[in-house]
Amino acid sequence: MILEQLKKTEEQIEKSGLSDEQKAALKQHTAAIKEGINSLNSDKILEVIKKLNDTDIK
Amino acid sequence: MKYEIIFNIAGQDVLPPTNWMNIDIIAAYEDSIQPQIEIDSFRFVNETALLIKRWINYDQSRSNGPSIFDGIPFTMQIYSDQLQKYINYDGILDTTEIEFINETELTIKIKPYDGLEYIDQMLQSITYGLLAQKKFITENDYIEVPVIIRKKFDGLETTLVSVSLFLIYDTTHNWIKENKESIVKTFKALTFSTPTQKPADLYEAIAFAIQLIAYTAILLITVTNLLKSLVKNLLPIPVKYKGMTLRTMLTKAFAYFDIDFQSEIRELDWYVYLPSKTDNKIRKNRQDEGIPNTDDFGYQCIEALNTAIDLFRAKSKMTVINNRRTFILIPEKSERLQKNSGYQLPNELLGANGLLMEKFRFNTDEFRGNFILSFQYDPADEYTMPNEKDSDSKQYEKGVFYEVATELANPIENKNRLTKGLEDVRIKLALGARRNKLSAMEYAAKTLLMGIDSFIKILGGKTFNEKIDENKGKLVISQNSFNVPKLVVIRDGIIPKNHRDLLSAKYLYNNYHYVRSFKEAPEFSQKKIYEGVRIPFSFEDYLKTYNNSFFEHNGTVMKFRHIKWNLSSDTAVATIEEPFTYVNQESLKETPVEP
User: Fold this and answer.
1) In this complex, is the C-beta atom of B212 within 8 Å of any C-beta atom belonging to chain A?
2) Within an 8 Å CB–CB cutoff, is residue A39 touching chain B?
3) What part of B 221-240 touches A (C-beta under 8 Å)?
4) Helix (H, G, I), strand (E, B) or coil at B80
5) Ramachandran area for residue B191 (φ above 0: left; ψ -120 to 50: alpha; else beta)
6) Interface ipTM > 0.95
7) pLDDT digits over A1-47, tens only?
């Protein structure tokens, strides 16, 4: 279910009017989460949360 | 003198022993098809005595060559008028049984090459440790026995762990359920966002959704990993121990003496001897070997043979097949099916009534009022100990012991009863317990695995395969060491479901030991015994009966029990048994006893 949600999120990112740079940044996070889920490695996902928290949204 | 005899020692023809006319050969067949042979000592003098002395080299005049522990090749060539040819008797002069009478005279024993007594003594001198060290036993001779180590939990332990597992599962599942709704709501908000929404707001919303997914994923991964590690610790540990089939053990032991081993007993291929497992630090042999430990019953090769003899009520025999010395193990139940010796009992021995003789006794001394066949318990392995409350242990207990009491069906008076005695067959091995069903702990773990699978489903990955059922058919032990070597049935790499139908005290009784029953198998057990029968006996007869004590007489298969023959004489004194049912089966009652 979570992987499905990630897929939908990626589709939403693609359809959104965000810049290519923003789209690429967000997709990098979804890819990292997928990888973490597949390897049951929570550290990789924690990294995503940390990066998102640190992002200065303009 | 009927025979011309040529004596040959170490390839040289020598003068006959001075006492050869008085030499008695005693063949005792009690425990084997082939007799234990006892031959009087031969007395050699002068040149022949000197030849023997030189061979043993007791004065150490030579620095190499044979010594007192090298038997001297010995042949008697006996001319048979009947066959019109010489017949060879090959053996050794047993230099360890020599007595020096004086300077020019000595006595010495002879032993046949294929004598059973000789074989027993040879097997006593070797161990499986020696065979492994000399590479007579290699890795290819081992059978892998799949084993799971499953501690027996007590009730309180099981309950506490089960409740804890349930709480972890339930709490986590509820949390997921609640957050699942939040994620869905967020996504709905994102999907139906308005076209006027600012890019910064949209970016933030998507980033928030990703964070939410990330948090949920972390929680699920953490709980999944925790539960998996918990399950791993609770589930039995699968390992593989090495053992050997009984046939391999016996084949290898005989091969050491360049003797082939043969047996029709099919269980020898199924029954695997699993050495005891002591702690690694104190284990005396190497961990990767399937040979018995030094203190296991079966470490000495003779013990392995005796175990097979006891298990299958077997008799032994040496013979020559394709020019190879061959040791044959035959169950008592089928020894009569062997080709008989061809010995002919002369008609003049028959009594007036056409029967063998008029003087005989019955073998009532061989009747036993009780018979017990048992394997061992092993306190180090809880699955091989009696436990009324545990079905696995109860099943073990049932297989490990079988008793058959034989009494008079209707005794005239109790005080006059003569059904007495006991035959006690104790196998110094334990049996194996098969992992048949899930323990309470495994049931709990199985539920937990279903929970883990449901978390993995939420994550979207592949579900965790249930591995619990894969352990069926393995040997189950309660800890990684046990003290008594086990005997287990292995077929196609696992312990078959019906292993107790193939190996248990009851199975062995019903398939092999039943021949001792005066009620169920009178054709085997009840006999007439003729003692002190003087029979015409020649060297040809000796050779005929040496490998086979059975002979046919008037359609009945009879058996020599004992023959005393003088080498120079035409007659022997024999004890002969004839199958004869003298107790009506109905007058006996058998009571099987199982734990």
Assistant:
1) no
2) no
3) 221-222, 224-225
4) strand
5) alpha
6) no
7) 778 888 888 888 888 778 888 888 888 889 999 888 888 888 888 88
